[in-house]
Every structure is written in C-alpha cells, then in structure tokens.
Amino acid sequence: MQYVDFSPGESYQRRHYRLWALLRLADFLTSAMRERSPWFSLAREHMGILFVVNALGKRATPAAISRVTFRKPHTVSKVLSNMEKKGLVRKYRDLPRANQVRVALTPKGRRVFRRVARHNPLVRSRVAASDTGMAQLETGLVWLIRTFVSRIPVSEEFMEVFEAVCKRASST
Question: Among 14, 46, 124, 152, which has the minimal tally of Cβ within 10 Å of its Cβ?
C-alpha cells in the first residue's frame, strides 16, 4: 500500500483518503499481530462480545448485545452459540420473564476476558505512551463518538456502555 501525502489545503476527498488509509493500516497491524498476542488470538466478534457481556452484566441479552455491537440479532445469536460451545458464555432463561434469554460469562469466559484485557495492546502501550498523548487520543475518540451519536439514534445500552467507558477513562 502506497501512502500519499497531501498539502494542508487538501480537499475533502483527499482527507477522506487519508482516513481510509489510516484505517486500513490499523487493520493491517491487527492482522499482523494476530499470532503474537493473546489479545488477537480470539476472534474479533468474540472479543467484542466478551467486553459487552462483562459491561452489561445481568442486563446482557442477545438483543442488547446486538444493539451495542451494531450487529444483526441473528449474527449475535450465532456468535453466542459458538461461544457457548467453546465454554465462554452461558445462555439461560430469565426467571421473571421466561421468554427472555440472558447471557453471562462462564468462569472460563471470565479468565479469557481478563487475559485478553490484560494483553490488550492499547493498554500495554499506555505504559510507553505519554500521558498527554493518551489523553489526546481518548479526547479525540470520545469527541468522534459523541459527534456520531448526536447524529444517529443509538440504544440506551450503547450509551450506558459508552458512558461507563468514558467514566473509566477519565478516572485513570
């Protein structure tokens, strides 16, 4: 992939290209690191669902996970079934509402979640990154997400997870 540098007075299309190129580079790095870290040895869908189930706690349902991860319900159900076969999550019927399925991490799922979270390259690189750099990155990402959220409808569960992440980021 060849990167093209543009002048400060660049057009919208050129800035769009640069963002696309940066996202592709991030995807390339993810692929390259897949074999080198426990963080990347787990399927992306499984990683995301582990984090969401942990964040939602007792409110984790396939529908809530679907809304928070922006995945179609049948896709989430299939991934949850695969994760259940691997022993990472457990699906069970909610007692007060027998027609509702809840999702919980199994002990193995909690161990994998802790291992994956501990080896998260962003968390690990935090030690090497400057506090100012990390603060700028967090501020930029929060601004970007808040901008999108102000323009598109999102679920309450998404906002709860987002606010919890923001609160956790500001307390560290």
Answer: 152
Task: Write out pLDDT tens, residues 45-91.
Answer: 788 899 899 989 988 999 999 988 878 899 999 999 999 999 999 99
Give pTM, 2 decimals.
Answer: 0.58
In the prediction, which pLDDT does 1 show?
Answer: 43
- Asked whether 149 and 128 are in contact (CB, 8 A), the reply is no
- Bridge partners (DSSP) listed for residue 103: 91
Q: Chain-centre distance of CA 121, in angstroms?
A: 13
Distances (CA, A) of 113 to 55, 92, 119: 11, 20, 10
| CB-count exposure of residue 20 (10 Å: 0-12, 13-18, 19+) | exposed
CA-CA distance, 75 to 86, in Å (whole number)? 17
For 21, which DSSP code?
H
**How many whole angstroms separate alpha carbon 90 and alpha carbon 107?**
10
Calculate mean pLDDT across residues 12-32.
73
Q: Which tokens go with 153? A: 């409808």
